Backbone:
């Protein structure tokens, strides 16, 4: 083979990852803790460093971790596109409802003290909405890019 010829890889089957039991076991073990840390960042980011964006990205990284450990095709089988779109739409809808619900209650956009709940609870609701929106976008981008790499029609 000369230096000018392109290097091609033969597909290994449905999964293009190593079959390492160590990587798969570590992924299974770490995944719940990563999700818990993402939830922690989201809920306690209002008073500590962190917040909705970071929490959403950390929670979305779980899907990337699972796809790297088990392959994109098996991950795509359990990752429902409707749930992914629902995550994105739910986050945007909650944020929009809070933002413009304040206007309906006589305040300005995102003026949280006009709601019957405490401002702290309203901030947490906004943080959860932003985290869901960010996680939906990050997972969607990953699926879109990975689907294009693996020969999908939508990329």
Residues:
């Amino acid at each position: 083979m000369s230096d000018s010829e392109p290097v091609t890889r033969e597909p290994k089957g449905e999964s293009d990852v190593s079959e390492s039991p160590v990587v798969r076991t570590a992924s299974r073990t770490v995944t719940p803790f990563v999700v818990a840390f993402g939830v922690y960042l989201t809920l306690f980011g209002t008073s500590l460093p962190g917040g909705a964006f970071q929490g959403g990205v950390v929670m979305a990284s779980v899907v990337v971790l699972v796809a790297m450990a088990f392959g994109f095709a098996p991950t795509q089988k359990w990752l429902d596109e409707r749930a992914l779109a629902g995550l994105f739409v739910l986050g945007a809808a909650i944020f929009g409802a809070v933002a413009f619900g304040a206007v309906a209650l006589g305040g300005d956009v995102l003026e949280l003290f006009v709601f019957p709940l405490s401002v702290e609870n309203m901030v947490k609701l906004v943080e959860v909405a932003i985290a869901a929106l960010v996680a939906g976008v990050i997972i969607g981008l990953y699926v879109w890019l990975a689907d294009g790499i693996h020969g999908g029609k939508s990329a």
User: Anything to note?
Assistant: Helices lie at 21-44, 52-70, 72-78, 81-104, 119-149. The CA atoms of residues 60 and 138 lie 6 Å apart.
